[in-house]
Each structure stands twice: as C-alpha cells, then as structure tokens.
Amino acid sequence: MAIARIRSRLSTGGPAQPPSPMPNSRPTRNDPSFNNYVDKLKNIPEFDTTDDSNRPPIAEVEYKLIKAKDKNSIQQMMESAAKFGMFRVSGHGISPEELNASFTEADFIFGLLAERWSRDGDREEFAWSRSAMAVAERRRDVKNDENFLKFRSKMDNVANKLEAIAKDMAQAIGTNGGKQPRKKIKENETRMVLFKHNNSSLQPHTPRSSQTPRSLDGNRRDNATFALSIHIPTEQGEFRLISEEGPVSFRTIPNTIVITVGEQMEEWSYGEFRSAFGEINIEPDIQDEKGAFSIELKCSPSCLNDVVDKHDSISITDQIIFVVIVAMVYKLFSYMLS
C-alpha cells in the first residue's frame, strides 16, 4: 500500500527519468540534459510516510496509570489532547484474540442487516448502536438467529469495555482541569462503526469519503455530536489524522488504542482541547479472504457534565461564603465605630 501510494504521488508530479547514457562519455555539470535531470529531482513532490521518526509527539499513556491518577501521565494526555486533539492508550485490556473473535459472524450479519451496511472505497462499514440492534431483534428473521445473538453479545461486551475506557479518560481530564470554565454537552447514545478492510488492489478504484474535497466538512458534522472517539484495529495498521494542515500518519496496533477529541469536548472545554478527525487503514494480504477489521466508537461520557455540575455548585458555595464574610466584616466595623 505504501509503495503504491508513493508511486501514485510521484507520478502526479512528473517523475524525472535519467538521461540516456552517452557512449564513451560521462554527463558533466555543463551538460544541459544532466542539469535538466537535476532540476526535476529538486521538484519531486513530498509524500506521506508511516515512518515513526516523522510522527508528531502524540502522547501514549498507560491505562493503569490513568486509573491510578498518575499526575504525569494525565498531564501528558491533556497536553496531547490540547495540541493535537488526540492521544494513545496502551494496556487497555482488550486482547487481539477477543477483538478477532468479535467479528466471527460479521460477514453473515453484514448481509442479514444489509440496511446498516455500506461500502466506502476499499472498505465495508456497519453502523452499530444498542437501539438499532434492539430494533433489529424484533424482526422475525433475526430474533432467533444464533449468529445474530452471538454477534450482538460480543459487540455489547466490546462496547462496554471501550465506554469504560472513554469514561476513565474523560474523568481524568475533567477532574484535573482546575477551575477552568466548562459547558454542558448533550449525552448522545454511543455509536460504533465496524470496518472491514479489504486489499485495495482487489477493490474498485473509488476514493473513500475521507479522501474527497468535502471530507473535513462531513467529518466535522459527524464529530460534532460526540465528545470522544476510540479507534482500535484487529491487526497492525495505519492511523491517518485528517486536518486542514494536511494528513499525518503513524502505525497503530491492537494493543494500543487511539482516542480523538470530538467537537463536544472542544465546546465543553471552551476550546482548551481541539477536535480532530482520523481513521484507521489496514492493508490485508491479497490472499487473505477474511480481510481485517477495526472499530470506531463515539460517545458522550456523562461524567463531563458531572464536572460542570460540581463546578457550578462550588461556585454557588463560594458566593455564599463571600456574602457571609462581607456581612461579618460589616458588623465588625459597625460595632467598632459605634
């Protein structure tokens, strides 16, 4: 995939071909064809890379340290969320085996619930939510289907674990923000998108929606309804951060999840944390008929609103204490002057 992308980017910039060899002679700096070749080399376009040396310093924190309220880890996480709109969490407790097992019935379910299935370029998407699965279960051809019941149980379990991680991250951010003003958010239902990644050479050459000129607008509208998004693959892949400054890519693995900030959290923090949009890309082996999978879970943790309520109650208490102190000082001065 990386080689194909490099070739594509180079071809659009008019790759320079070396001059034909000259018999019994060597090109010199004064040779026009040699100079033309050098000039073209200077104009070779830049291309994206997943080389970790070019990756921005996005924080990677241990889940157990966040739960233990380690101040250094929480500070790193918050700084990364403020600067990049994202951070990574390792040691989250969801094994690659559990993730892969969750998709055992995926192909069957994608067909059974075709109204929730769609294709986006070289990958397939399945929209999951608890309410949608509850509605689907009422269907006569679904409610007693063993594959559906297994699939729903596994995905409920994965969603519960990812929500717990999101809650712990949001709680850490909320309780370590000092007395910064916060704004309440709408607590929307958690939603997951299940992605099946196919080898790009076997798929029609249609771009993903994220690769179109209006991708940022579409992602922004979708991102506005959630506070956090959690991204996790079933095997090693590439995470691409999509921004107005251009895409940034880095490797990601099942043992480390990527969390991006949604517009709800940006509004909740009055701009202290910036929202970001990104997606996982996996290029399975061309002979792998099963493909590979990844999950994106979007949620609005209620603990963010709890922080607002606590902040407001403290503010009212402070006001009452201030009034009492002023009254006592006034009485004291009145007594001294009488």
Outline the structure in words.
It is a single chain. By secondary structure, the protein is α+β, with helices and mostly antiparallel strands. The chain has helices spanning 2-12, 32-42, 63-67, 71-83, 96-102, 106-112, 130-137, 146-175, 215-223, 263-268, 303-337; strands at 60-62, 86-90, 117-120, 123-128, 191-197, 228-233, 237-242, 248-252, 256-261, 277-281, 292-299. The longest helix has 35 residues, at 303-337. The chain is elongated and about 95 Å long. The model is unreliable at 1-16, 18-27, 37-52 and 314-318 (pLDDT under 50). Residues 1-36, 197-220 are annotated as: Disordered.
Please render the helix and strand layout as text.
Elements: H1 2-12, H2 32-42, E1 60-62, H3 63-67, H4 71-83, E2 86-90, H5 96-102, H6 106-112, E3 117-120, E4 123-128, H7 130-137, H8 146-175, E5 191-197, H9 215-223, E6 228-233, E7 237-242, E8 248-252, E9 256-261, H10 263-268, E10 277-281, E11 292-299, H11 303-337
Number of strands: 11
Percentage of residues in strands: 15-25%
* Global structural class: alpha+beta
Order of helices and strands: HHEHHEHHEEHHEHEEEEHEEH
- Summarize the amount of helix as a percent range: 40-55%
Termini separation (Å)?
88 Å
Which overall shape is indicated by the principal axes computed on the Cα atoms?
A: elongated
**Mean pLDDT rating:** 79
Sheet with the most strands, sense and barrel status: 8 strands, mixed
Number of helices: 11
Uncertain spans: 1-16, 18-27, 37-52, 314-318
Radius of gyration: 27 Å
Largest sheet strand order: 1-2-9-6-11-5-4-3
